[in-house]
Amino acid sequence: AVVSTQSTGIYNFVNKKSRNAYLKKKNPRKIAWTVLYRRKMKKGTEQDVSKKRARKTTKFQRSIQGATLENILAKRNQKPEVRKAQREQVIRSQKEKLKAKKEAKASTKKKTDTKAVRAAQKKISKANTKSRPARTGVMM
Hints:
The chain is mainly alpha-helical. It has helices spanning 16-23, 35-40, 69-77, 80-112, 115-131; strands at 2-5, 9-12. The chain has a two-stranded antiparallel ribbon with strand order 1-2. β1 (2-5) and β2 form a beta hairpin. The mean pLDDT is 82.
């Protein structure tokens, strides 16, 4: 029982039953009597072979970049009230920094945004438009 195909080559089948299954493009993993099916469903394998035991994972504490293990343990053992007070203090200081930054920005803006500066800029822009010749009907 030999079958030859252009793309895959020549196959020698054991019997007509397997050749016909191949020609009908049946999946051998779904046909109960094939070797592939028996392998997939683990039929006929030794059951005495025990599965490999996975090792238990062990917990291990180590330092993180920027914080030593002692610092981490000390923080963990702190009372929650103390930790909360520290957090609030840090937040307050950050807010104050932002407020100071905004005030500095506003003060610099006030210095530059005066009416006199704006008026001077308008005069300069008007003078530039007057000195330019009119471009009517000019083709490039």
